[in-house]
# Entry
Amino acid sequence: MLTILIPVRDEIENLNNIVQKFNENLTSINYEVIFVNDFSSDSTFEKAKEICNTNKKYKVFNNEKKGLGGALNLGIEKADGKYICIMMSDLSDDINDLIKYYKIINERDLDAVFGSRFLDTSKINDYPIKKLILNRIFNIFVKLIYFRSYNDYTNAFKIYRSEVLKSFIPLFSESFNVFLEMPLKLINRKYKYEVIPINWSNRKKGKAKFNIKELRSKYLSTLIRCYFEKFLIKK
# Structure
């Protein structure tokens, strides 16, 4: 079974669309969806509970420690699937790429599949230019530090073998930098992964939570911590 883990904060406008998209496209996959409500100030939690009451594939939990790190720690702990795919609630990720992830990780006995929005066949729609430039600079820096060809570490949308991801918790990162921590932990431990091109579109509804100024130091801190960790651990 596949667990689709979706942290949500003030995403009332997107919940129905998430359910509709999954219902229409994941008919051949046995899956569960875990929403983790990250201290929403709107009625996101109540709407998610309503969805769960009418569809047993869906579960919702209230985050115990505000931030994406806390939300993911809780969601990973609660996941029942053999694999866990993390998706963002803004519907920026391509559902067809999720299907590809699940097929590849199943068929090739991998521990993870990492998507990249920056390969030749990837398609990106309406990526904010300032965010794009900073993204490319930082990811190229990580690529050089780690001597890897992968170029999209900070992308949230990845799939992991559940037992591997559960071995990483508690994750120490508290915000969007958690999406850098997870792939670096996997690489540090020499788990098997593949990289595929994926597509991305900017959100149509709701407000983005990503704040570049607040996160620059956090990403650097996570990179430094993970970089030195790789010299101290054995798989």
Summary: The chain has a mean pLDDT of 93. The longest helix spans residues 129-146. The domain at 2-229 is CATH 3.90.550.10 (Spore Coat Polysaccharide Biosynthesis Protein SpsA; Chain A).
